[in-house]
Amino acid sequence: MKRLLLFLPLVISVGIGVFLFSGLGKDPSKLESALIGKPVPEFALQDLHDPEHILDNSVFKGQVSLLNVWAEWCPACWDEHGYLMHLARDKGIPIIGLNYKDQRETAFGFLGRLGDPYQAIIFDPRGSLGFDLGVYGAPETYVIDAEGMVLYRHVGVVNERVWQEILQPVFNQAKGNS
Amino acid sequence: MRFYPLLLAMLFLVSPVQAEVTEVYDFDTLAEEQRYRNLIAELRCPKCQNQNIADSNAPISKDMREVVYRMMQDGSSNDEIVGSLVDRFGEFVQYKPPVDKRTILLWAFPGIAVVGGFLIVAGVVMRSRKQDTKEPALSPEEKARVKAMLADKDQPSKR
């Protein structure tokens, strides 16, 4: 009994080591969304292309889609845009854009230079829908199911690897269910 | 040496440096303002990892301060304000997590550590005391022998 007790410090330090090791390599800036499994917050905002046209939650109904939060002022959005074009054009993935705290003219300049992969673009100059979604930095990409529920949230750039390893499995699974 | 009192006095004169944020909100009462300050000091900026929204200049912190202010003006309670932000940004925004099933260990740990440490120290002390008393006192013969040895040592050797 006494002998076993001598091993206690070893056991404790190995335990702490395992616990700390499991934390290595985790990105602390990735937060879980509070919205997963909940519907996209209610909104009624202008269409970027047509101020007369008001978009609401019905844009997400009837198809599994991606919701991409972007802005002209966001450098990483310029980086990922080429891949979004590829997803929309070559793979036929429906992408809804959320133009976050931007101006119409600059947003058009961005789309004019890089192309427009979006089925519809929600214009959110004050960031109200962004706030309700818990957006704390663009770009962010959500997988939304055919009922308008948030399935997944990815903070940061979407590229080949992120799509294949993270988003596509969620997307395909949702498509299989609906 | 004689500068010590002066240095000591200077130590107490040092005040914490604070980043000032740009926008200013008006409050009807000092108590309300204090409540606002407490709230924004307790809420964590989701973008900047370890800053509260009072100190942070990130745009998201500015939005959050605005929401805190607006909800206060609408008469919301502190719990409602914090709750609405947690619904959007997750538990991460709270520096003080609520006490519930998942966080009870976190909250209880300091208490457990203090009580555990006390028990260990008490155990060690009691055990050493027990050993002290268990040690048998010298028997009369042994005492005599010790006396003889000491006496022998006091006198220089005759050899």
Describe the 3D structure.
The complex is a heterodimer of chains A (178) and B (159). Chain A has 6 helices and 7 strands, in the order H-H-E-E-E-H-E-H-E-H-E-E-H. By secondary structure, chain A is α/β, with parallel strands linked by helices. Chain A has a domain of 115 residues: 3-Layer(aba) Sandwich (Glutaredoxin), CATH 3.40.30. The N and C termini of chain A lie far apart (60 Å). The model of chain A has no long low-confidence stretch (mean pLDDT 88). Chain B folds into 2 domains: 77 residues, Orthogonal Bundle (Helicase, Ruva Protein, domain 3); 51 residues. In chain B, helix 2 packs antiparallel against helix 3 and helix 3 runs antiparallel to helix 4. Chain B is elongated and about 95 Å long. The mean pLDDT of chain B is 83. The interface between A and B is medium-sized, with 16 and 16 residues.
Order of helices and strands of chain A: HHEEEHEHEHEEH
Work out the helix count of chain A.
Answer: 6
CA radius of gyration of chain B: 33 Å
The percent range for strand residues of chain A is: 15-25%
Q: Report the helical percentage of chain A.
A: 40-55%
Radius of gyration of chain A: 21 Å
Spans of chain A of 5+ residues with little confidence (pLDDT < 50)? none
What is the overall shape of chain B? elongated
Q: How many H/I helices of chain B?
A: 6
- Gap from first CA to last CA of chain A: 60 Å
CATH class of the largest domain in chain B: Mainly Alpha
**What do the pLDDT scores of chain B average to?**
83
Strand order of the largest sheet of chain A: 5-4-3-6-7
